[in-house]
Task: inverse folding
């Protein structure tokens, strides 16, 4: 596999009052509306946690601090690209009254409980979405100190 097909990504797993924040977007491969966690590529000069916080802000308008991480997920997508994804947990005690996506690619924001996702009416972008929710609900929480800062 060429390096052009290997992608380092981050996802913000936001849980508030037992519901998960998902973004509605268009899947670039299928052209269909899908649900995903706020997620995206790590920029060249960016550390992993900063990337997760940036993606969260860009896709939701929320500025939150991470509390833990769930580990690393991997997926070989239908386009033949391999995605390596760090799942970062955000568990806010409160939320602002108003927040909205800063990125025009995000069509809407949705809050779903884990069991509500099956009836959401939209497919998940990939199995990485449900896998992260399962890990969270299984109680997986890795300390942020295990992610070494960029030096």
Result:
């Amino acid at each position: 596999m060429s390096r052009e097909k290997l992608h380092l990504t981050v996802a913000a797993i936001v849980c508030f009052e037992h519901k998960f924040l998902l973004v509605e977007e268009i899947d670039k491969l299928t052209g269909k509306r899908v649900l995903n966690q706020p997620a995206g590529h790590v920029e060249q000069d960016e550390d992993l946690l900063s990337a997760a916080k940036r993606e969260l802000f860009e896709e939701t308008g929320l500025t939150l601090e991470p509390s833990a991480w769930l580990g690393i997920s991997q997926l070989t997508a239908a386009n033949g690209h391999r995605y390596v994804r760090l799942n970062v947990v955000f568990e806010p005690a409160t939320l602002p009254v108003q927040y909205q996506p800063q990125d025009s690619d995000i069509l809407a924001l949705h809050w779903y409980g884990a069991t509500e996702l099956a009836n959401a009416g939209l497919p998940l972008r990939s199995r990485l979405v449900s896998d992260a929710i399962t890990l969270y609900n299984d109680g997986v929480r890795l300390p942020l100190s295990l992610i070494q800062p960029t030096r």
The longest strand covers residues 6-16. The chain has two helices and seven strands. The first helix runs from residue 48 to 60. The CA atoms of residues 17 and 113 lie 9 Å apart.
